[in-house]
User: What shape does this take?
Amino acid sequence: IKKELDGMAVPDWAKVMAPVSQAEKEHKAAVERTTMLGIKAKRLADAAQKMKEYAQIFAKLDQQQAVVGRLSELANGSSVTGEQGRLSFQRYVLQTLLDDVIMAANVRLEKMSHRRYQLVRAQAATDQRRAAGLDLE
Assistant: This one.
């Protein structure tokens, strides 16, 4: 074996190990990048889950707000199309009371006029600029 090895040159281990060392460094860097990307992916998945939860909460709140908003529109006299209506909730209550008063007054008026006259509440507004519901014909 010595005879065979005598003619050979001693390899330069630094040259031989340089690519191996470089490959090990690149491997270590790749493992670190993979770990960091895994952590980032976990954070993004957690954030996406939170966003889904918030979306569900906001959807429920939106439904509740829609109901409250619709009640507010009705109480203020707004119509379905969003145009300002002429019959607010207050006017509706007053209209109901007026109907009761008209009914009682008609009983007396029929006796006094021998059924010639009768009080009737106007069903439609005569002037579009005025609120409807409390006029007599």
Summary: DSSP finds three helices and no strands in the chain. The chain has a mean pLDDT of 85. Residues 30 and 89 are 70 Å apart (CA to CA).
